[in-house]
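This section describes the prediction task in plain terms. A model, or a person checking by hand, is given the sequence of a single protein chain and must write out its three-dimensional structure as a string of tokens. No templates, partner chains or ligands are provided. The sample shown here is typical of the held-out split.
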Amino acid sequence: MVQIYNNFFHLSHNIFNFASAINRMSFFNFMRHFIFIFLLTIPAIIAIAQRAPRYTISGFMRDSLTTESLISATVYNKANLVGTSTNSFGFYSLTLPEGKVELVYSYVGYHAQTVSLNLRRDTVINVSLSGTLHLQEVTVTAGRALRIQESTQMSAISVPITQIKSMPAFLGEVDVLKVLQLMPGIQSGGEGSSGLYVRGGGPDQNLILLDGVPVYNASHLFGFFSIFNADAVNSMEIIKGGFPARYGGRVSSVLDINLKEGNMQKFHGEGAVGIVSGKLTLEGPIIKDCTSFIVSGRRTFIDAVAPRLLSYTKSKMNYNSGYYFYDLTAKINHRFSANDRIYLSAYMGDDKFSSKDKWQEEDSLNWYVNKTNAGLKWGNITTAFRWNHIFNPKLFGNTTVTYSRYRYNTSSERDFIHTYIDTTIIANPPVIQTRRDYYGLWFDSGIQDLSVKVAFDYLPSPDHYVRFGAGVIHHTFNPGVTATRDTAQKREYGAPKVYAWEYSAYLEDDMKLTERLKANIGLHWSAFGVDSKYYQVWQPRISARYLITPQLSVKAAYSRMAQYIHLLTNSTIGLPTDLWVPTTELLRPQKSNQVAIGFAQNFREDYEISLEGYYKTMTNVMEYIEGANYFDTGNSCEKKILQGDGRSYGLELFAQKKTGYFTGWFGYTLSWTDRVFDELNNGKPFPYRYDRRHDLSIALIKRFGKEKKHELSCVWVYGTGNSVTLPIGIYYAKKPVIKLDDLCRYYDFGERNSYRMSAYHRLDLSVAFVKQKKWGERRWIMGVYNAYNRKNPFYVDMEVFHWNQKNDTFLYKFMQYSLFPIIPSLSYQFKF
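The expected answer:
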């Protein structure tokens, strides 16, 4: 013990010398010393506190039927309530003193399992829990899953997939992102949109991870659906603040989605057929208890229905159009040994819209044919190869290699053919000539990434959970290339591809300081190199919780975030015509600083409630220059953009019940969000377009029937209307320089986003009738979107309603246009 104290004294002396030398160090020396001393400090402190031999119990927690990993499940020693939780692969590690222990393994929605043993050496225990959707409350109490007030993490929400799949669905299609829009602090951009606007941020400020791979466009059907098939999703968590150091690259939120791994025991399947799409998921063992697979596909029927509705044929014209989307998700999971496992997962999906028309006319000497074709296509590809290795019972490693690509392209072609009899030439038979006039336009843009990441979980004792790792991403940006072709030649112009490197490293420790105080302290470093420009940002993170009572805690967090890639959005059109561009010498990285404080309370084990207040500042957020837009090809991207500052603050109330026959949640947000640009609105702050003062959502699920298998669910939402800019006056004047008698009309728009559209509110209902069959389970689902037919605002336009003939002037009025009326839906689901 004396030797340990001497070592610790010398270590403290080294830390002091290290701190005084920070300013003289390069970054790489700083990181090397920081990581080295941090890792040395923790074992030294633990060694001092040890009085008896200690051994480590480790293993995996999985579902007994599906063999899926149980993420964030808990294991604790019943004698002293010392415990830990599983990571994103279901791995846990718990170091306890020698002697008798009674371990309780639990997870929300599963029966708890107790294991007793006499701990005398490092032990591996793999546990399979049996799940049920209809747990009695006494069973839930016995489970003692990780409760909201015990975790240091705040501003994070995890929704069970079973709850997501029970929510009322738009057009019968369950959507993961639409459920998230019902959470406090998260809102949609508008009617039907699947975009996420988190605590005043934009859609590009969300880091969306699918099995660890960034997704750059998460929407189908022009934003009405997301790309995530709920049947293939194992877990989902969104973090709005108090970001752990292991996450970086965006400034507003992190959405971490993990796909299912595939059943290693039995072959299973499930699917559904709705009014717009159908889907099928198959999973099972390739080699039992060793290798498994899962494949899930989804496709719309719109291209089969739309041509019949939109196409028409007249004597001189034939017109038809079509649209479809599909996505395909696949994953293979293979276990080499007790300590090694690999995963290979992939996603591929596309949306495609086409429009064709043909006009023809003829007379005795001429034949005219005019063909026009227009197309729009966008889609994602993501792949991930992950290798898990258990170095020892306390150290878990994960290496990930990923590739992702988002591509958008559009095309337009016109082909005019004139065939005629040349009357200038007298011949028998007559001479027939053809003249062709052709023009085509194609635009292509996108982004692709290739990355490597290594991450480690180190659990030296129940009082410390250390995570550290590093990663590198190679970005290829295609800001936009336009190609034109006419009868004579082909031309190509636009911005060249841009290549960039993004680096990151992190270190964090979730530590128990006292019986009541626990904190997560970490540091994230990131850097970005493009052309000859290099940026780096240090991002400290800290979050803490203090238990006031065993059921009530107060939490606080601070996080600094940085983002090096930007999305240029043309808000005037509802198409995915957004451009991803990198930070350059002229475009600086976006940064945010956020502080949050709140309370978390647990009632009767299965009720959770939290109240949070937050304040966030953002720098270098982007807007188009007045008059510039996506189609402005005359200037480079950098010359179209303004950078300014943003601010968001508010209060969020969230209450949730995850288990039992009656589940659901209540969420309310009171918030303010504004922007300020020197070149806009005379340099004065103005409301962000998606600034929403009040946002309220209620989601309820009730299971009924003799066996409690049928489900009735409802969702009601209310939100303050979006901010828009509308004219406040019109005046007439002659054009300058040009001397004309006619007067020209000019608009006075006043201050930016100074008008509020009407409030948005809607009620959705759904009922599911479930029946057990010999081959499996079938489910009929009937739903109603916008049950009381609310005419919610989609956009506002100005129209003439009176003409004053005397002075030849017009009177105008604003007209509100709505998108979706009441929409019924019907779908059939099955499992086998």
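For orientation: The longest strand covers residues 432-461.
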